[in-house]
Amino acid sequence: MKTIWIEEKQLSLALQRNEAFWRGELEEGPLLWMTAPGAKPSQPVPEPASEDELWTNVDYVMAAAERALGGTHYAGDALPVFCPWLGPDQFAAWLGADLELRPRQNTSWCKPFVRDWAEHPQLRIDPENQWWRLYLQLLRESVRAGAGKWVTGYPDLHTGIDALSAIRGPEDLAMDFTNNPDAIHHAMRQMTDLWKFVVDTASEIILPAGQGTSNWTMGWSKDRFLCVGQNDFSCMISPAMFETFCRRDNLECCAHADHSLYHLDGPGAVRHVPLLLRLEQLDCIQWIQGAGNPLPSQWLDLLRRIQAGGKSIQLYYGEGHGGDADLKHELDVLCGALDPTRLFIWATADLVQTAEDIVRYSRRAGLRQ
After folding, report:
1. Host domain of residue 13
2. In angstroms, how far apart are the furthest CA atoms of the chain?
3. In the chain, how many domains are there?
4. Which of 42, 309, 316, 351 is 20 to 30 A (C-alpha) from 275?
Protein backbone atom coordinates (compact mmCIF):
# COMPACT_ATOMS: atom_id res chain seq x y z
CA MET A 1 0.00 0.00 0.00
CA LYS A 2 1.27 3.48 -0.86
CA THR A 3 0.03 6.93 0.07
CA ILE A 4 1.45 10.41 -0.31
CA TRP A 5 -0.23 11.48 2.92
CA ILE A 6 1.75 9.37 5.43
CA GLU A 7 5.51 9.48 5.97
CA GLU A 8 7.23 6.28 4.81
CA LYS A 9 8.46 5.05 8.20
CA GLN A 10 5.06 5.56 9.85
CA LEU A 11 3.30 3.89 6.94
CA SER A 12 5.55 0.84 7.06
CA LEU A 13 4.95 0.42 10.78
CA ALA A 14 1.19 0.89 10.41
CA LEU A 15 0.99 -1.79 7.72
CA GLN A 16 3.05 -4.19 9.82
CA ARG A 17 0.88 -3.60 12.88
CA ASN A 18 -2.38 -4.04 10.97
CA GLU A 19 -1.24 -7.41 9.63
CA ALA A 20 0.11 -8.43 13.04
CA PHE A 21 -3.31 -7.75 14.55
CA TRP A 22 -4.91 -10.37 12.29
CA ARG A 23 -2.18 -12.89 13.08
CA GLY A 24 -2.56 -12.36 16.83
CA GLU A 25 1.03 -11.09 17.02
CA LEU A 26 0.46 -7.39 17.73
CA GLU A 27 2.91 -5.81 20.18
CA GLU A 28 2.52 -2.52 22.04
CA GLY A 29 -1.23 -2.78 21.51
CA PRO A 30 -3.93 -1.87 20.96
CA LEU A 31 -4.29 -1.33 17.23
CA LEU A 32 -5.25 2.34 17.05
CA TRP A 33 -6.78 4.05 14.03
CA MET A 34 -6.62 7.68 15.13
CA THR A 35 -7.37 10.50 12.71
CA ALA A 36 -7.89 14.25 12.81
CA PRO A 37 -10.26 15.04 9.92
CA GLY A 38 -9.92 18.48 8.39
CA ALA A 39 -6.58 19.07 10.10
CA LYS A 40 -4.79 20.06 6.89
CA PRO A 41 -5.85 22.88 4.56
CA SER A 42 -7.56 21.86 1.35
CA GLN A 43 -9.44 23.56 -1.45
CA PRO A 44 -13.24 23.34 -1.26
CA VAL A 45 -14.96 21.32 -3.97
CA PRO A 46 -18.00 23.07 -5.53
CA GLU A 47 -21.13 21.03 -4.86
CA PRO A 48 -23.28 19.83 -7.76
CA ALA A 49 -26.75 21.20 -8.38
CA SER A 50 -28.80 18.41 -6.76
CA GLU A 51 -28.47 16.49 -3.51
CA ASP A 52 -28.52 13.12 -5.30
CA GLU A 53 -25.41 14.14 -7.24
CA LEU A 54 -23.41 14.23 -4.01
CA TRP A 55 -23.35 10.44 -4.47
CA THR A 56 -24.12 9.98 -8.17
CA ASN A 57 -21.86 12.55 -9.85
CA VAL A 58 -18.71 10.45 -10.19
CA ASP A 59 -16.34 13.36 -10.79
CA TYR A 60 -17.65 15.19 -7.73
CA VAL A 61 -17.51 12.07 -5.54
CA MET A 62 -13.85 11.50 -6.38
CA ALA A 63 -12.90 15.16 -5.89
CA ALA A 64 -14.71 15.27 -2.54
CA ALA A 65 -13.07 12.03 -1.42
CA GLU A 66 -9.60 13.34 -2.30
CA ARG A 67 -10.28 16.60 -0.46
CA ALA A 68 -11.53 14.82 2.68
CA LEU A 69 -8.79 12.19 2.76
CA GLY A 70 -6.03 14.61 1.82
CA GLY A 71 -7.13 17.01 4.54
CA THR A 72 -7.02 14.34 7.26
CA HIS A 73 -4.10 13.71 9.60
CA TYR A 74 -3.39 10.00 10.08
CA ALA A 75 -1.93 8.95 13.41
CA GLY A 76 -0.97 5.59 14.82
CA ASP A 77 -2.11 2.71 12.63
CA ALA A 78 -4.65 4.66 10.54
CA LEU A 79 -4.64 4.71 6.75
CA PRO A 80 -6.69 6.64 4.19
CA VAL A 81 -9.71 4.57 3.10
CA PHE A 82 -12.56 5.47 0.76
CA CYS A 83 -15.64 3.26 0.44
CA PRO A 84 -17.93 4.23 -2.44
CA TRP A 85 -21.54 3.70 -1.47
CA LEU A 86 -25.13 4.65 -2.12
CA GLY A 87 -26.39 4.37 1.44
CA PRO A 88 -27.28 1.34 3.58
CA ASP A 89 -29.97 0.10 1.18
CA GLN A 90 -27.72 -0.01 -1.87
CA PHE A 91 -27.79 -3.82 -1.94
CA ALA A 92 -31.60 -3.86 -1.96
CA ALA A 93 -31.47 -1.41 -4.87
CA TRP A 94 -29.11 -3.75 -6.74
CA LEU A 95 -31.84 -6.39 -6.36
CA GLY A 96 -34.38 -4.07 -7.95
CA ALA A 97 -35.82 -1.93 -5.15
CA ASP A 98 -36.57 1.74 -5.81
CA LEU A 99 -33.93 3.77 -4.00
CA GLU A 100 -34.25 7.19 -2.42
CA LEU A 101 -30.93 8.87 -1.66
CA ARG A 102 -30.36 11.25 1.23
CA PRO A 103 -26.62 12.05 1.09
CA ARG A 104 -26.84 15.01 3.46
CA GLN A 105 -28.19 12.63 6.10
CA ASN A 106 -25.71 9.95 5.01
CA THR A 107 -28.45 7.41 4.37
CA SER A 108 -30.84 5.97 1.81
CA TRP A 109 -34.22 4.24 1.82
CA CYS A 110 -35.85 1.72 -0.46
CA LYS A 111 -39.42 0.59 -1.04
CA PRO A 112 -40.09 -3.09 -0.31
CA PHE A 113 -41.13 -4.92 -3.46
CA VAL A 114 -41.67 -8.53 -2.35
CA ARG A 115 -45.40 -8.99 -1.78
CA ASP A 116 -45.36 -12.76 -2.18
CA TRP A 117 -42.18 -14.86 -2.02
CA ALA A 118 -43.65 -17.24 -4.61
CA GLU A 119 -43.42 -14.42 -7.15
CA HIS A 120 -39.67 -14.03 -6.51
CA PRO A 121 -38.20 -17.52 -6.78
CA GLN A 122 -34.84 -16.16 -7.87
CA LEU A 123 -33.31 -12.95 -6.51
CA ARG A 124 -30.54 -11.61 -8.71
CA ILE A 125 -28.52 -8.55 -9.62
CA ASP A 126 -29.31 -7.48 -13.17
CA PRO A 127 -26.05 -6.39 -14.87
CA GLU A 128 -28.00 -3.47 -16.35
CA ASN A 129 -29.40 -2.32 -12.99
CA GLN A 130 -28.66 1.43 -12.83
CA TRP A 131 -27.55 1.37 -9.20
CA TRP A 132 -25.25 -1.62 -9.72
CA ARG A 133 -23.70 -0.03 -12.80
CA LEU A 134 -23.20 3.25 -10.92
CA TYR A 135 -21.61 1.50 -7.95
CA LEU A 136 -19.14 -0.37 -10.18
CA GLN A 137 -18.30 2.89 -11.95
CA LEU A 138 -17.61 4.55 -8.60
CA LEU A 139 -15.52 1.58 -7.47
CA ARG A 140 -13.37 1.54 -10.62
CA GLU A 141 -12.88 5.29 -10.53
CA SER A 142 -11.91 5.16 -6.84
CA VAL A 143 -9.26 2.54 -7.60
CA ARG A 144 -7.92 4.70 -10.43
CA ALA A 145 -7.98 8.00 -8.53
CA GLY A 146 -6.72 6.42 -5.32
CA ALA A 147 -3.50 5.01 -6.80
CA GLY A 148 -0.71 6.02 -4.44
CA LYS A 149 -3.19 7.81 -2.18
CA TRP A 150 -5.90 5.66 -0.61
CA VAL A 151 -7.33 2.18 -0.16
CA THR A 152 -10.63 1.55 -1.93
CA GLY A 153 -12.77 -0.36 0.54
CA TYR A 154 -15.24 -3.18 0.03
CA PRO A 155 -18.93 -2.13 -0.07
CA ASP A 156 -21.07 -1.75 3.02
CA LEU A 157 -23.14 -4.88 2.45
CA HIS A 158 -26.50 -5.06 4.20
CA THR A 159 -27.21 -8.47 2.73
CA GLY A 160 -28.59 -11.49 4.58
CA ILE A 161 -31.50 -10.89 6.87
CA ASP A 162 -31.18 -7.10 6.57
CA ALA A 163 -31.61 -7.27 2.79
CA LEU A 164 -34.70 -9.43 3.23
CA SER A 165 -36.09 -6.85 5.64
CA ALA A 166 -35.45 -4.09 3.08
CA ILE A 167 -37.10 -5.84 0.14
CA ARG A 168 -39.96 -7.47 2.09
CA GLY A 169 -40.57 -4.93 4.86
CA PRO A 170 -39.69 -5.64 8.51
CA GLU A 171 -43.25 -6.33 9.68
CA ASP A 172 -44.02 -8.81 6.90
CA LEU A 173 -40.61 -10.47 7.31
CA ALA A 174 -41.22 -10.92 11.03
CA MET A 175 -44.46 -12.76 10.22
CA ASP A 176 -42.68 -14.89 7.62
CA PHE A 177 -40.45 -16.43 10.27
CA THR A 178 -43.51 -18.19 11.65
CA ASN A 179 -45.81 -18.42 8.64
CA ASN A 180 -43.38 -19.12 5.81
CA PRO A 181 -39.98 -20.27 7.13
CA ASP A 182 -39.16 -22.27 4.00
CA ALA A 183 -39.31 -19.10 1.91
CA ILE A 184 -36.88 -17.39 4.31
CA HIS A 185 -34.44 -20.30 4.14
CA HIS A 186 -34.59 -20.24 0.34
CA ALA A 187 -34.08 -16.47 0.19
CA MET A 188 -31.21 -16.57 2.70
CA ARG A 189 -29.33 -19.14 0.61
CA GLN A 190 -29.61 -16.72 -2.30
CA MET A 191 -28.41 -13.85 -0.09
CA THR A 192 -25.23 -15.79 0.71
CA ASP A 193 -24.51 -16.49 -2.94
CA LEU A 194 -25.16 -12.86 -3.87
CA TRP A 195 -22.87 -11.65 -1.07
CA LYS A 196 -20.10 -13.82 -2.48
CA PHE A 197 -20.80 -12.57 -6.00
CA VAL A 198 -20.53 -8.93 -4.93
CA VAL A 199 -17.34 -9.57 -2.93
CA ASP A 200 -15.74 -11.46 -5.82
CA THR A 201 -16.73 -8.75 -8.31
CA ALA A 202 -15.34 -6.01 -6.06
CA SER A 203 -12.16 -8.04 -5.45
CA GLU A 204 -11.49 -8.26 -9.19
CA ILE A 205 -11.45 -4.46 -9.25
CA ILE A 206 -9.77 -3.70 -5.90
CA LEU A 207 -7.04 -6.31 -5.49
CA PRO A 208 -5.02 -5.67 -8.69
CA ALA A 209 -4.40 -2.09 -7.49
CA GLY A 210 -2.03 -3.41 -4.81
CA GLN A 211 -3.39 -1.10 -2.11
CA GLY A 212 -4.73 -3.91 0.06
CA THR A 213 -8.28 -4.01 1.41
CA SER A 214 -10.46 -2.38 4.00
CA ASN A 215 -14.13 -1.54 4.47
CA TRP A 216 -16.32 0.96 6.33
CA THR A 217 -15.07 -0.34 9.72
CA MET A 218 -11.50 0.65 8.85
CA GLY A 219 -8.62 -1.75 9.49
CA TRP A 220 -6.41 -3.07 6.71
CA SER A 221 -4.91 -6.19 5.18
CA LYS A 222 -3.14 -7.07 1.95
CA ASP A 223 -5.68 -9.92 1.72
CA ARG A 224 -9.50 -9.87 1.71
CA PHE A 225 -10.71 -8.17 4.91
CA LEU A 226 -14.49 -7.91 5.13
CA CYS A 227 -17.27 -6.88 7.47
CA VAL A 228 -19.46 -9.99 7.38
CA GLY A 229 -22.29 -9.11 9.75
CA GLN A 230 -24.76 -6.33 9.00
CA ASN A 231 -27.60 -8.12 10.78
CA ASP A 232 -29.34 -5.12 12.36
CA PHE A 233 -32.65 -6.98 11.99
CA SER A 234 -31.27 -9.57 14.41
CA CYS A 235 -32.33 -7.29 17.28
CA MET A 236 -35.91 -8.26 16.42
CA ILE A 237 -35.49 -12.04 16.60
CA SER A 238 -34.58 -14.62 19.22
CA PRO A 239 -31.24 -16.43 19.43
CA ALA A 240 -32.98 -19.60 18.24
CA MET A 241 -34.29 -17.83 15.13
CA PHE A 242 -30.91 -16.21 14.54
CA GLU A 243 -29.24 -19.61 14.62
CA THR A 244 -31.89 -21.20 12.41
CA PHE A 245 -31.96 -18.54 9.71
CA CYS A 246 -28.62 -16.70 9.89
CA ARG A 247 -25.92 -19.10 11.10
CA ARG A 248 -25.24 -20.70 7.73
CA ASP A 249 -24.95 -17.31 6.03
CA ASN A 250 -22.51 -16.06 8.66
CA LEU A 251 -20.43 -19.25 8.46
CA GLU A 252 -20.10 -19.10 4.68
CA CYS A 253 -19.32 -15.39 4.62
CA CYS A 254 -16.54 -15.83 7.17
CA ALA A 255 -15.10 -18.70 5.13
CA HIS A 256 -15.14 -16.50 2.01
CA ALA A 257 -12.91 -13.85 3.62
CA ASP A 258 -9.28 -13.96 4.70
CA HIS A 259 -10.06 -11.75 7.71
CA SER A 260 -13.55 -11.07 9.02
CA LEU A 261 -15.24 -8.64 11.40
CA TYR A 262 -18.84 -8.83 12.65
CA HIS A 263 -20.81 -5.62 13.28
CA LEU A 264 -22.55 -6.10 16.67
CA ASP A 265 -24.88 -3.11 16.87
CA GLY A 266 -26.41 -2.19 20.21
CA PRO A 267 -27.65 -3.93 23.35
CA GLY A 268 -30.46 -5.68 21.45
CA ALA A 269 -27.91 -7.71 19.51
CA VAL A 270 -25.92 -8.92 22.55
CA ARG A 271 -28.18 -11.97 22.91
CA HIS A 272 -26.53 -13.42 19.78
CA VAL A 273 -22.95 -13.29 21.08
CA PRO A 274 -22.88 -17.00 22.10
CA LEU A 275 -23.59 -18.00 18.50
CA LEU A 276 -21.03 -15.55 17.12
CA LEU A 277 -18.37 -17.00 19.38
CA ARG A 278 -19.02 -20.40 17.79
CA LEU A 279 -18.17 -19.04 14.32
CA GLU A 280 -14.66 -20.47 14.23
CA GLN A 281 -13.46 -18.42 11.25
CA LEU A 282 -14.75 -15.10 12.59
CA ASP A 283 -11.75 -13.02 13.68
CA CYS A 284 -13.14 -9.87 15.30
CA ILE A 285 -16.37 -8.42 16.70
CA GLN A 286 -17.05 -4.70 16.42
CA TRP A 287 -19.07 -3.55 19.44
CA ILE A 288 -21.19 -0.45 18.84
CA GLN A 289 -22.94 0.43 22.09
CA GLY A 290 -25.31 2.91 20.42
CA ALA A 291 -25.95 6.60 20.97
CA GLY A 292 -26.86 7.47 24.54
CA ASN A 293 -25.56 4.20 25.99
CA PRO A 294 -22.56 3.88 28.34
CA LEU A 295 -19.06 4.07 26.86
CA PRO A 296 -17.18 0.88 25.89
CA SER A 297 -15.30 0.89 29.21
CA GLN A 298 -18.65 0.22 30.91
CA TRP A 299 -19.20 -3.01 28.98
CA LEU A 300 -16.24 -4.97 30.33
CA ASP A 301 -18.19 -8.17 31.07
CA LEU A 302 -19.31 -8.34 27.45
CA LEU A 303 -15.87 -7.48 26.09
CA ARG A 304 -14.13 -10.03 28.32
CA ARG A 305 -16.60 -12.67 27.17
CA ILE A 306 -15.83 -11.90 23.53
CA GLN A 307 -12.07 -12.15 24.03
CA ALA A 308 -12.45 -15.28 26.16
CA GLY A 309 -14.34 -16.76 23.21
CA GLY A 310 -11.29 -16.30 21.01
CA LYS A 311 -12.31 -13.15 19.16
CA SER A 312 -10.62 -9.78 18.94
CA ILE A 313 -12.65 -6.61 19.58
CA GLN A 314 -13.06 -3.35 17.74
CA LEU A 315 -14.45 -0.27 19.53
CA TYR A 316 -15.47 3.02 17.95
CA TYR A 317 -15.24 6.53 19.40
CA GLY A 318 -16.79 9.03 17.03
CA GLU A 319 -19.64 11.47 16.65
CA GLY A 320 -22.68 10.19 18.53
CA HIS A 321 -20.75 7.19 19.83
CA GLY A 322 -18.43 8.45 22.54
CA GLY A 323 -16.53 10.89 20.39
CA ASP A 324 -16.24 13.27 23.37
CA ALA A 325 -14.94 10.57 25.74
CA ASP A 326 -11.74 10.89 27.74
CA LEU A 327 -9.77 8.47 25.58
CA LYS A 328 -6.88 8.23 28.01
CA HIS A 329 -9.24 7.04 30.73
CA GLU A 330 -10.88 4.62 28.30
CA LEU A 331 -7.48 3.24 27.33
CA ASP A 332 -6.46 2.78 30.96
CA VAL A 333 -9.63 0.84 31.76
CA LEU A 334 -9.73 -1.22 28.57
CA CYS A 335 -6.04 -2.12 28.49
CA GLY A 336 -6.16 -2.98 32.18
CA ALA A 337 -9.16 -5.31 31.83
CA LEU A 338 -8.58 -6.81 28.38
CA ASP A 339 -5.79 -8.20 26.23
CA PRO A 340 -4.69 -4.99 24.44
CA THR A 341 -3.03 -6.92 21.63
CA ARG A 342 -6.49 -8.15 20.59
CA LEU A 343 -8.10 -4.74 20.85
CA PHE A 344 -8.73 -2.40 17.90
CA ILE A 345 -9.77 1.19 18.64
CA TRP A 346 -11.07 3.52 15.95
CA ALA A 347 -11.31 7.15 17.04
CA THR A 348 -11.14 10.74 15.83
CA ALA A 349 -9.70 13.91 17.33
CA ASP A 350 -10.13 17.60 16.61
CA LEU A 351 -6.42 18.42 16.60
CA VAL A 352 -3.25 16.79 15.27
CA GLN A 353 -1.54 17.23 18.64
CA THR A 354 -4.40 15.48 20.42
CA ALA A 355 -4.33 12.56 17.99
CA GLU A 356 -0.59 12.06 18.34
CA ASP A 357 -0.77 12.38 22.12
CA ILE A 358 -3.42 9.64 22.27
CA VAL A 359 -1.27 7.36 20.12
CA ARG A 360 1.74 7.78 22.42
CA TYR A 361 -0.46 7.21 25.46
CA SER A 362 -1.98 4.06 23.94
CA ARG A 363 1.46 2.52 23.41
CA ARG A 364 2.35 3.12 27.08
CA ALA A 365 -1.04 1.85 28.27
CA GLY A 366 -0.56 -1.34 26.29
CA LEU A 367 2.93 -1.92 27.64
CA ARG A 368 1.87 -1.41 31.27
CA GLN A 369 -0.31 -4.51 31.20
Report:
1. 1-37+72-79+214-223+260-369
2. 61
3. 2
4. 316
User: Who contacts 247 (Cβ-Cβ below 8 Å, separation ≥6)?
Assistant: 275
Neighbours of 308 (CB within 10 A): 11
Say yes or no: 309 and 361 in one domain. Answer: yes
Residues 16 and 165 in one domain: no
Q: DSSP letter at 221?
A: B
Cα-to-chain-centroid distance, residue 213: 12
Does 234 share its domain with 278? no
CA-to-CA separations, 297 to 206, 270, 304, in angstroms, rounded? 36, 16, 11
pLDDT at position 321:
80
Spatial separation of the C-alpha atoms in residues 316 and 219, rounded to whole Å:
12
| Pair (305, 358) in one structural domain | yes
Q: Give how far Cα 342 sits from Cα of 11, 166, 215, 300, 307, Å.
A: 21, 34, 19, 14, 8
pTM across the whole model = 0.96
pLDDT of 216-244, one tens digit each? 999 999 999 999 977 788 989 999 999 99
At 67, which CATH number?
Answer: 3.20.20.210
Q: Name, in order, each residue with C-beta under 8 angstroms of 126's C-beta and a sequence gap of 6 or more.
A: 96, 132
CB 160 within 8 A of CB 249: yes
Residue 30: cis peptide before it, omega within 30 degrees of 0: yes
Same domain, 251 and 319: no
| Whether residue 312 sits in one domain with residue 270 | yes
Local structure of residue 295 (DSSP, 8 states)? P
Q: Are residue 249 and residue 326 in the same domain, yes or no?
A: no
Q: Report in angstroms the alpha-carbon separations of 29 from 91, 261, 297.
A: 35, 18, 16
Q: Tens digit of pLDDT for each residue in 94-145?
A: 999 999 999 999 999 999 999 999 999 999 999 999 999 999 999 999 999 9
Distance CA 124, CA 122 (A): 6
3-state secondary structure 81-100: EECCCCCCCHHHHHCCCCEE
